[in-house]
Write a sequence for this structure.
């Protein structure tokens, strides 16, 4: 039984389709990278999966008792967060919000969970620091710890290494891979095709052309070669 | 000076004004951080103008208890403004500007056309800048203010964690199962209540100052959401007390004296924050 099954999905804003004919499945423990050109609708797909917008057509089926409250999300940084006065502990704890339901305050279980996830992300020494004073990599680890408070099953990551330097980027990828090995399903929107091919088990390529399959199959496809070439050309 | 103060404090209306002033200052400071960071500042400003328009209508209709009319209308507008900001193609900022300026103009027009008062500009001035309305409240109004501001404080404490989650990252909160829309609605309604309350204290034009200054001052000094919230509440209460006392002693208008105290506190906190950074 797959965790997510998308059938002939059409996505877009205000009736205007950005993406259509999207069919793919995500199984527990998969590491799926969503790649594609800028403006190809990767973020739109993310928002739809998160339930922030409704699909224009097709269906999304959630399996294995996965509820909305069990998706962890690592968003791109918003301008609001740049000057938000909050400590690392407060932010990580807010990831438990989906668990407390109607209760007004966090209980012992939530506090313990937040602490465990801070330990896992190696940010215990930062617990009382202010979020806005941290480096980019530290901030991403804080948000990852928060996402882990919301889920143990499925993480959706939106450009998790954007703006990070190469060393911190590598650390971030290692962290994510570690979580995947522990059994957390990873779905990641990425610009970084090389890393996608190195770490992911499956690739979803959206945009003018469509591909869904294992990373192995993608590597040998003509689409990947053209796309890699185009990306390389941009960098050169 | 102490003697004069003791004399004033023996009057029950002065004591009432102090109690109500402190309560209003307390609840108006609580949502300041949320308002500033969620880019709701404009909504707060727009709503205060709407409240002025509603007050004018209530005045024209000769309602005895104006708050019972102004409050529901302002809450309704808060909800409407929030919806326009999110769902339609009309630019949210433009919609707010239109509604707020429109309410201001219509309010003044109505007062001019229908008011029986001999001192129209005095009335308008006291609605806009508060003047001494906090000192002339009826017993019912005092009770209403006390109950409403306590309700705001209780709601804020109960929903503190949810307000934090929705303010910090609305998308994440929604994705992890928090009903962000409902909480946005709650925040907007509470802001409307605060604005109607604060109108009694500082008048409709100065309300934003009461909401935003303590939060901005606290954000200079403190780093956690909790300490910023506590500090801005304490600061707001202190400034309101000082402002009311100074205005009674020296005969200045209550609202602008309180705001002047808030501004002074902001500069003191800015300087302290700079010093702290140099030392640390």
């Amino acid at each position: 039984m797959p965790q997510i099954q998308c059938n002939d999905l059409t996505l877009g804003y205000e009736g205007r389709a950005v993406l259509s004919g999207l069919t793919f499945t995500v199984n527990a423990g998969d590491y799926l990278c969503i790649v594609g050109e800028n403006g190809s609708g990767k973020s739109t797909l993310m928002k739809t999966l998160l339930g922030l917008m409704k699909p224009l057509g097709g269906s999304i089926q959630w399996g294995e008792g996965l509820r909305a409250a069990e998706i962890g999300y690592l968003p791109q940084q918003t301008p609001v967060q740049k000057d938000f006065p909050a400590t690392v502990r407060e932010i990580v704890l807010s990831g438990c919000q989906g668990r407390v339901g109607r209760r007004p305050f966090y209980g012992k279980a939530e506090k313990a969970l937040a602490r465990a996830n801070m330990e896992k992300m190696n940010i215990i020494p930062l617990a009382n620091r202010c979020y806005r004073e941290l480096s980019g990599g530290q901030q991403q680890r804080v948000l990852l710890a928060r996402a882990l408070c919301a889920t143990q099953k499925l993480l959706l990551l939106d450009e998790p290494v954007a703006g990070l330097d190469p060393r911190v980027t590598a650390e971030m990828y290692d962290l994510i891979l570690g979580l995947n090995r522990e059994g957390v399903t990873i779905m990641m929107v990425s610009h970084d095709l090389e890393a996608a091919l190195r770490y992911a088990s499956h690739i979803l390529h959206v945009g003018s052309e469509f591909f869904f399959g294992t990373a192995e199959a993608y590597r040998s496809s003509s689409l990947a070669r053209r796309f890699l070439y185009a990306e390389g050309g941009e960098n050169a | 000076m102490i003697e004069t103060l003791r004399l004033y404090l023996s009057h029950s209306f002065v004591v009432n004004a102090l109690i109500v002033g402190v309560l209003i200052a307390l609840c108006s400071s609580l949502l300041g951080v949320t308002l500033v960071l969620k880019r709701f500042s404009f909504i707060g400003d727009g709503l205060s103008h709407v409240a002025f328009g509603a007050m004018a209508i209530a005045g024209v209709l000769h309602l005895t208890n104006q708050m019972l009319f102004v409050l529901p209308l302002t809450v309704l507008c808060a909800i409407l403004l929030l919806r326009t900001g999110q769902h339609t193609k009309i630019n949210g900022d433009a919609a707010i500007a239109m509604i707020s300026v429109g309410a201001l103009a219509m309010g003044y027009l109505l007062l001019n056309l229908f008011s029986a008062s001999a001192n129209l500009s005095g009335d308008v001035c006291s609605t806009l800048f508060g003047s001494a309305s906090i000192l002339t409240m009826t017993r019912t109004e005092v009770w209403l203010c006390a109950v409403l501001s306590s309700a705001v404080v209780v709601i804020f404490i109960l929903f503190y964690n949810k307000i934090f989650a929705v303010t910090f990252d609305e998308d994440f909160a929604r994705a992890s199962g928090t009903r962000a829309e409902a909480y946005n609605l709650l925040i907007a309604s509470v802001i409307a209540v605060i604005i109607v309350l604060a109108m009694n204290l500082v008048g409709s034009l100065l309300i934003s100052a009461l909401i935003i200054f303590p939060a901005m001052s606290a954000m200079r000094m403190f780093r956690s959401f909790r300490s910023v919230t506590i500090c801005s509440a304490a600061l707001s209460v202190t400034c309101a007390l000082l402002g009311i006392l100074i205005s009674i002693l020296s005969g200045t208008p209550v609202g602008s004296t309180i705001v002047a105290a808030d501004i002074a506190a902001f500069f003191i906190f800015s300087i302290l924050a700079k010093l702290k950074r140099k030392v640390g």
In short: The beta strands of chain A are 4-13, 16-26, 31-35, 57-62, 71-74, 154-158, 185-189, 202-205, 211-214. Residues 166-181 of chain A form the longest helix (16 residues).
